[in-house]
Amino acid sequence: MALLNVEGLCKKYEKFYLDNASFSLDEGYIMGFIGSNGAGKTTTIKAILNMIHKDGGNVEIFGKPFKENEFSIKQDIAIMMGGSNYYPKRRLKTISDVAKRFFTNWDNRTYEGYLKRFQLDTDKKICELSQGMRIKYALTLALSHDARLIILDEPTSGLDPVARDNLLELFQELVEQGEKSILFSTHITSDLEKCADFITYINNGKIIESTSKDELLESYRLVNGSEDDLDKIKSDLVAYKRNSFGFLGLIQTDKLNSHKGIHSEVPSLDDIMIYYAKKEENSDNSAL
Amino acid sequence: MPVLFGALFLIPHWPFFIALMYFFFISVPNIYGTYNSQNDNGFSLMMPVKKSEIVKAKMLSFITLEMIHMAAGAVFAVIRVSLYETPNFLLDPNLAFFGVAFIMFALFNSIFFPLYFRTAYNYGIPTIAATVVSMLFAAGIELLVVFNTTFAYYLEGKNSETRILQLVILLAGILLFTAINFITYRRSALLIEKIDL
After folding, report:
1. If 0-12 CB within 10 Å is exposed, 13-18 middle and 19+ buried, where does residue A170 land?
2. Inter-chain contact B40–A52, Cβ cutoff 8 Å?
3. Distance (Å) from the C-alpha of residue B19 to the closest C-alpha of chain A?
4. A150 CA: distance to closest CA in chain B (Å)
5. Four-CA torsion B119, B2, B135, B106, nearest 10 degrees
6. Looking at the complex, does the CB of residue A36 fall below 8 Å from at least one CB of chain B?
7. How far apart are CA A239 and CA A237, in angstroms?
8. How many domains does chain A have?
9. Which of A82, A36, A100, A17 is nearest to A273 (CA)?
10. Domain ends where: A150, A180, A210?
11. Which of B121, B196, B197 to mutate to test the interface with A (most CBs of A within 10 A)?
């Protein structure tokens, strides 16, 4: 069953437009929401959760329309939007005491477990925590009420490599049973390569791809060749970079079939992001 | 704070509406400034509540504070009446006074909250606008009591006929307060859905 289904989500800001974002996430999977800074990841997540007013589109969570069932749906969602940047002079235990009253499924044992795992001292105040620890605290609050859908905005930014790896392992543990799903946004592609099942790639307010990680990597190829090859293949490329040997470019696999003899290899997620960003840059330059 | 302001009811000749209005001058900017500095909106959005319930929560806590001020005022008004023989030059702190005070609070809420929830952040202009209107209303009532003898008779009279009218004014005030706050809540809930928090 699709735990999260987003259709045609739109949001217009003065200089940015989230254009018809659509994707869905089934039970028991991890979806990585990837895009460069300013691509629209946080806007999409906020629009899904009704934190900002959307200009169009439908969101369904657990098979129910979000707008009409906001209150009951939110009991089963875990939300983490960056570190805990509220009530800086309050102790963690005070904030936890307030937060736990809102959730009917709050589990104190799970909460204590996460505190221990992340080595958080509840006598400290929020302002005394580093950015990474604030993110860990926000995660603790989010994960302690048995949520079925866990939505995290950049959970690994600010974490040291060890903590980041531990967190990604934790995500995999959570979805192992097949009942929970995780949607997390990031611009660190190595996180996705480690644990994501599905990837949704957004660039400049448009969803470019939303598919399984393997399919995504299969549907693109990194090609290189000489200047002559470039002339033949230029129009089919997503984007390319010139170098002293010729060029390096990204192409969709089905378009590659008509160009035999060009050397190709499987790209990394980084490559796909970089070349799409280059494509945007080129179209902006040509518009100028 | 309510107790300190309530004690102002013991002043011999004074517009007692000001005792209740100190809440607007001092408490409101402090409370809403603190909401901003603590990023209360950010915290509220993490909780499993509808966006419109943020309005309900803020209004209910605000109204509770207003009622505490009224209650403290009422206690001191009773003490005052038993202490002093001479009536107040302006409106006596009787049942009618509190009925009108309910209307004043309702007026403040009906202007403050819709203006505040246009941004859920800027509270300066909403506070000023709502305070000015409440003050004009209270001043109007006090001036009517001083200059219009019929008004003064009905609002300050001590016989059974006027007492009943004062009780009716109190009850009408409470009803209007409830109705106006409900309408204000509905308006503000629609406004908060339109903004980006």
Report:
1. middle
2. no
3. 31
4. 12
5. 60
6. no
7. 5
8. 2
9. A36
10. A210
11. B196
**Alpha-carbon separation of residue B123 from B51, B81, B181 (angstroms):** 19, 37, 18
pTM: 0.85
pLDDT at B92: 79
In the prediction, which pLDDT does B37 show? 92
The closest alpha carbon to A239, from A279, A195, A188, belongs to A279
Take residue A215 and report the two structure tokens written for it. Answer: 């399919």
CB A82 within 8 A of CB A154: yes
Same domain, A18 and A139: yes
The helix (H) or strand (E) run that includes residue B140 is: helix B124-147
Strands A246-252 and A237-243 turn out to be: antiparallel
CATH number for position A24: 3.40.50.300
> Residue A109 corresponds to which tokens in the numbers above?
């044992």
Triad A140, A143, A145: Cα angle to 5°: 115
Task: Identify the segments of chain A with pLDDT beneath 70.
Answer: 287-288
A107 and A238 part of one domain: no
44-103 in B: which are within 8 Å (CB) of A?
45-51, 53
Report domain extents, chain B: 2-194
User: Which single residue is written with the structure tokens 């506070």?
Assistant: B127
Owner of token pair 């209007």: B176
pLDDT tens for A100-157 read 999 999 999 999 999 999 999 999 999 999 888 999 999 999 999 999 999 999 888 8
Give yes or no for B40 touching A (CB within 8 A). Answer: yes
Contact yes or no for A88 and B38 at CB 8 A: yes
Residue span of the structural domain in which A276 resides? 219-287
> Using an 8 Å Cβ cutoff, are A250 and A222 in contact?
yes
Q: Which residues of A touch B196 (CB under 8 A)?
A: 46, 51-53
Query: CA-CA distance, B88 to B85, in Å (whole number)?
Result: 10
Same domain, A138 and A236: no
The complex's ipTM works out to 0.82
